[in-house]
Amino acid sequence: MKIEILGTGCPKCKKLHELAEEAVKELGASAEITKVTDINKIIDYGVMVTPALVIDGEVKVAGKISSKEEIIKWIEEKK
Amino acid sequence: MNKCCCNAKLKLIYSCSGAANTGEMADQISRKLAKEGYGNMTCLASVGAHISGFVESAKRADENITIDGCSVACAKKILEHIGVTPTKSYALTEMGVEKGKTPSNEEIISKISNKIKKDLPLKADQENNAEGDKNSGCSCCSC
User: Fold this and answer.
1) CA A43 to CA A35: how far, in whole Å?
2) Which residues of B touch A54 (CB under 8 A)?
3) What confidence tens digit (pLDDT) does each residue in A7-49 have?
4) What's the pLDDT score for residue B140?
5) Does A13 participate in catalysis according to the annotation?
6) Mean pLDDT of the residues in chain B
7) Of A12, A45, A54, the CB nearest to B5
8) Is A45 among the catalytic positions?
9) What is the mean pLDDT of residues B41-52?
10) Do B2 and A48 count as a contact with CB atoms less than 8 A apart?
11) Minimal CA–CA distance to A29: which of A57, A1, A52?
12) What angle is formed at CA A50 by the lines to CA A46 and CA A56, rounded to 5 degrees?
């Protein structure tokens, strides 16, 4: 599973990254988490506001920090 | 795209961009408004295709503005299909444009754009007005 955190590096982006890491750890899921800071790649996803979280190419949230519980739910759906 | 997650209201403009003169004008008016700072134009077709990034951005936007050529209102309805009610929606045929008749030229584009501008604050003005909120709640960045 590939999880991407889209954002240019603001604290909210970092927080979302932390929560994604915690969610993966809690589930013991096999997932690669990467940060995407390149504005062109972010725009390619159609994301107009950051932070955003993408799982296997699907944007799950944009413009806010989702809760760890939400991230866990999305990961479980993709398993 | 906004520079960061906290510095601005996200105001998105969608045009029907249909085949008729009305769709052509809706497209040109949307581009003009975006260039002049009334919002960010984004792709209606991508929302219709349920491309997740566009859908999530529409759901998260502070304002979604649709500019349709005619009263069939495809842009407005496409947003409604994803559960988003446009903040403001315009149909050019309700603003003096006749489908299949009114020529798409600079004069008409400017005339209709000016009507819409009277109804839409500039994005920068809204951001300045929101300065108080930003200072009190934002811990996002140093913007």
Assistant:
1) 14
2) 52-53
3) 988 899 999 999 999 999 999 999 999 999 999 999 999 999 9
4) 44
5) yes
6) 88
7) A12
8) no
9) 97
10) yes
11) A1
12) 60
